[in-house]
Amino acid sequence: MQEVTIVIPNYNGKRLLENCLKTLEQQTYKDFKVLVVDNGSSDGSTEVSSEKLELEIVSLKENLGFCGAVNLGIQKTKTPYLILLNNDTETDRYFVEKLLAGIKKSERIFSCGAQMIDFKDHEMLDNAGDLYTAMGWAVARGKGKKCEDFERAVRVFSCCAGAAIYRMDILKKIGGLDEQHFAYLEDVDLGYRARIDGFENWYTPEAKVYHVGSATTGTRYNEKKVFLAARNTIFVIYKNMPLLQLILNFPFILFGMIVKTLFFVKKGFVKEYWSGICEGVRDCHKCRKVSFVGKNVPHYLKIQLELWKNIVRILGA
């Protein structure tokens, strides 16, 4: 029985997609299907093929965003595990094998994220799992640091959906990506929901990918990206924090907003940042809020301690 489906969302990334598929052809573990969900590309992406992979391309007429494309891939996945992979990655030949080995270590593990390495400098990290703080900030753990310092598997708050494996039975239980996000922080929200239910997310450094980064948006900071990330910050807070937790964290959230405002004043995107915050407050009720369940109180307490601890880790870095 086939165990894993690799879902690759794509938007006008034909060259990157072709390269990504070539590296998947070299995997030591072979029994997987690749499902490319194309968000209405106009560059011929849907014509990409592979003689060595079991490849299916689903062509959408419009751009549904990362979340919409992934959810369609989830609906079409029949295997016990699903790997989400960005089109702007090159995979190490052990990538699939090591992710499968990692997630099979315990039925309590919801996801395992790969070691994402800077495409231009293979000694530097792009992502080693995500941290989340009481300020509402999500931070890529280890970004810009030496890979050799992050070679140990550890529990993380959430896994970057650019290169991660998920257990489908848990994914069906907690729900897929929230399409209200469109793109950005949807993976943090997904990992957060799993944590509330008591499941774990792990960083698996043996699984490696080389990541270009910002291939679709073009730059690390731009008007749309800043707007969406700011808006989705509010969505994540609203959806996952019950009232008491929100009250506890409000001073930290306010402080985080002040710091971000000063940062984006310097970058020239303060208008987009606050437009996103305002739309997040206005539209957060449209998101799927997590229902508070008494049996999950120990999980909330554990999460809250981690959110406070991560403030110290980020500000002290």
UniProtKB/TrEMBL annotation:
E.C. code: 2.4.-.-
Pathway: Cell wall biogenesis; cell wall polysaccharide biosynthesis
Alphabetical list of Pfam families matching this protein: Glycos_transf_2
Gene Ontology molecular functions: glycosyltransferase activity
Domain Glycosyltransferase 2-like span(s) in chain numbering: 5-174
Superkingdom classification of source: Bacteria
Keyword Plastid applies: no
Membrane-traversing stretches: 243-265
Keywords, alphabetical: Glycosyltransferase, Membrane, Transferase, Transmembrane, Transmembrane helix
Family listed: Belongs to the glycosyltransferase 2 family.
Listed name of the protein: dTDP-Rha:alpha-D-GlcNAc-pyrophosphate polyprenol, alpha-3-L-rhamnosyltransferase
Name of the gene encoding the protein in the UniProt record: wbbL_2
